[in-house]
Specification:
Number of strands: 9
Organism: Myceligenerans crystallogenes
Keywords: Purine biosynthesis, Transferase
Strand content: 15-25%
Distance between the termini: 11 Å
Mean pLDDT: 91
Strand order of the largest sheet: 3-2-1-4-5-6-7
Largest sheet: 7 strands, mixed
Order of helices and strands: EHEHEHEHEHEEHEE
Radius of gyration: 17 Å
Family: Belongs to the GART family.
Function: Catalyzes the transfer of a formyl group from 10-formyltetrahydrofolate to 5-phospho-ribosyl-glycinamide (GAR), producing 5-phospho-ribosyl-N-formylglycinamide (FGAR) and tetrahydrofolate.
Pfam families: Formyl_trans_N (PF00551)
Shape: globular
Helix content: 25-40%
Length: about 210
């Protein structure tokens, strides 16, 4: 990430990660396992979910990581909910915000508040097949290779600068669940590796090009 003057933001050890999740938390589990290694360079300091009673909250509790539930039904409207999510994240003072299966779209105000510090994963090789049905769309298109992407979040749909990608072959007998499962396995490894590198090395962004480290 660059400051307005063009200088990179320097990273330091133990960057603070806040993870947003909506489900079982397989990506969160991978990050929690990685952060136990002091050499990883980052720690999950907070988990924010949009639903109670989900696996991600159990993982946070078992790891001794504080969490917050910001449920849409508890707010008068979507704008108030977005403010609630932003405040819940702010409390944990994140260096990086990681979207790990978070199933709601965040408001532009949230994105501006944490601009350049939000990381997301997508189950396709962007810019191909953005949106909620990336795996299904890749199969329907007949591609022989798909994969996953870790990218910075901007105000578009899966349009932020790409940080890292991993290829996953499409097998002749693949259906959506089997292909998605293999993509998710690659996605976990890619996310853990990329977040660790961001924490240890920082990132430069020039236009659409994001480069981790010097």
């Amino acid at each position: 990430m660059q400051t307005p003057s063009g200088h990179p933001v320097e990273s330091s050890s133990a960057k603070r990660l806040v993870v947003l999740a909506s489900g079982g938390g397989s990506n969160l589990a991978a990050l929690l396992k990685a952060h136990d290694d002091p050499a990883y360079g980052a720690r999950v300091v907070g988990v924010v979910t949009d639903r109670p009673g989900i696996g991600a909250l159990d993982l946070a509790r078992d790891a001794g990581v504080p969490s917050a539930v910001v449920s849409l039904k508890d707010f008068d409207d979507r704008a108030a909910w977005n403010d609630g999510v932003a405040e819940a994240v702010r409390v944990f003072r994140p260096d990086w915000v990681v979207l790990a299966g978070f199933m709601k779209i965040l408001a532009p105000e949230f994105l501006r508040r944490f601009e350049g510090r939000i990381v997301n994963t997508h189950p396709a090789l962007l810019p191909s097949f953005p949106g909620a049905q990336g795996v299904r769309d890749a199969l329907a298109h007949g591609v022989r290779v798909t994969g996953c992407t870790v990218h910075l979040v901007d105000d578009g749909v899966d349009t932020g600068p790409i940080l890292a990608q991993a290829a996953v072959p499409v097998l002749p007998d693949d259906d959506e669940p089997t292909l998605h499962e293999r993509i998710k396995s690659a996605e976990r490894d890619l996310l853990v590796d990329t977040v660790g590198r961001l924490a240890r090395e920082g990132v430069y962004v020039t236009g659409r090009r994001a480069t981790i480290g010097a």
